[in-house]
Amino acid sequence: MTSAPPTPDTTTSASSRAPARFIPKNANWKARLSTMRENTALPALAGSSETDLTNIHTSMYVDVMVKPGEEARERLIEGTRQLLWDRGYVGTSPTAILEHSGVGQGSMYHHFKGKPNLVLAAEERSAELMQEQMRQVFGTDASATDKISTYLLRERDVLRGCSVGRLTADPEVMADDTLRAPVRQTFSVLHQHLVEAIVDGCASGEFASDLDADEIASTIAAVVQGGYALARAEQSVAPFDRAVQGAIALLRSSAPRHA
């Protein structure tokens, strides 16, 4: 019997890769992320040494963040984060968390007092990721228009929605000030980034000088979150794309007209 031809290997061979660097266990998470990108060819933002977190699979995030003895804790946090994103607080049962995380019940209660503590850790993880993405976009020397356009047009899982924004529709999360805090704080950080970009754009002449930065920042944030809702209702990314393109067009139309 003739054996089937081998499937071509399109990955980089081990011999052609540089030796993996050792990651010190006491390294902070950004240093570990940088080293992990070198070892595993994580994507970097164009023209930057920063890792593009929008294109890293969440399982890779666990690998980057994990420290010796904490693998079970990280798997619990990431598993809970994924469940919260898709099912909300009520649908994120302890049984589902254990099944999704692949750890034993003893590990869950060794690392966390109970479900609320684990959910809070998962929310904080989503907030960290979202805020890091913001820093990558708004912490550059790009123009105000480019910063805001990049934020609006960056790659997203539109039909799944925002991992932080979807929590605003969760009654259990919104009724608890502690669980609501990471959501509120994340949108506050986004608002500040947008306000600073708009103020800079007004000062540089990109936008009309009389724009109210707070109002426009809130509008842009609402366009994104509302775009998610429209897309999910239609089960199509088209409404989201129209919304963000419309926001960019309106912002650019505010540019002063020169005679």
List keywords for this structure.
Tetracycline Repressor, domain 2, 11 helices, mainly alpha, 259 residues, 0% strand
Description:
The structure is a single chain. The protein has a domain at 123-253: Tetracycline Repressor, domain 2. The N and C termini lie far apart (80 Å). It is elongated. It is mainly α. The protein contains eleven helices and no strands. Helix 3 packs across helix 6 and helix 6 runs parallel beside helix 9 (177-204).
Output the CATH homologous superfamily of the domain at 123-253. Tetracycline Repressor, domain 2
CATH topology of the domain at 123-253: Tetracycline Repressor, domain 2
Uncertain stretches of 5 or more adjacent residues = 1-65
CATH hierarchy: architecture of the domain at 123-253: Orthogonal Bundle
Shape: elongated
Helix content: 55-70%
**Portion in beta strands:** under 5%
Q: If you compute it from the alpha carbons, what radius of gyration comes out, rounded to the nearest whole angstrom?
A: 21 Å
Q: Which sequence of SSEs, written as H and E, runs from N to C?
A: HHHHHHHHHHH
Number of helical stretches of at least 4 residues: 11
Termini separation comes to 80 Å
Question: What is the number of strand segments?
Answer: 0
Instruction: Give the CATH class of the domain at 123-253.
Output: Mainly Alpha
List the helices and strands and how they pair.
Elements: H1 29-40, H2 58-65, H3 71-91, H4 94-101, H5 105-111, H6 115-138, H7 144-153, H8 171-174, H9 177-204, H10 213-234, H11 238-253
Helix pairs in contact: 2-3, 3-4, 3-6, 6-9, 7-9, 7-11, 9-10, 10-11
